[in-house]
Amino acid sequence: MHEKRRKASGKKRRENSIWEDRKRNCFGLPWSFTKYALDDQRFYLERGFFSTRYDEVRLYRMTDVVLTRTLFQKIFGIGTLKIDSSDKSLGNFMIENIKDSEKTKELFSRKIEQERKANRVYTRESIGSDEDYDGDGIDDGEINS
């Protein structure tokens, strides 16, 4: 049924995408030339009208997802995701003014974690200074003077 609706509307979709959206204006309407798509391993970003740029980021390169919603975004049911990434060409980026932003954030977080585990990519995070990394009984976070 979705396939028939897609063909009838003339919308072009990525073959394996699990999520797609467009950047929307402040009223939640998709009047822009920025498109987003997500499949099991990559995020795709397409920008521009006269000159179009296509970017893709492997999900295991993404390290953090933050959702922000202004008052106007809340009223119109949209939000912006800020993605921290180690990708060389795109770096940290934003997925701006998307609908169902809370569900989308959870989808991204889940897929990123799956891909990081599948590719054995781990991030070392140190919270606080009470860590003994070398096992000598001395807190390695302290500065010895």
Give a verbal description of the structure.
With 145 residues, the chain is of the alpha+beta class. It has a single domain (15-118), classed as Roll (PH-domain like). 21% of the residues lie in helices and 30% in strands. A 4-stranded antiparallel sheet has the order 1-2-3-4, with no helix packed on it. Strands 5-6-7 form a 3-stranded antiparallel sheet. A hairpin with a 5-residue loop joins strand 3 and strand 4 (53-58). The radius of gyration is 20 Å and the shape is globular.
- Shape, principal axes of CA atoms: globular
Unreliable spans are 1-10
Rg over CA atoms, rounded to whole Å, is 20 Å
Given helix and strand content, the structural type is alpha+beta
- Quickly count the domains: 1
For CATH, the homologous superfamily is named as Pleckstrin-homology domain (PH domain)/Phosphotyrosine-binding domain (PTB)
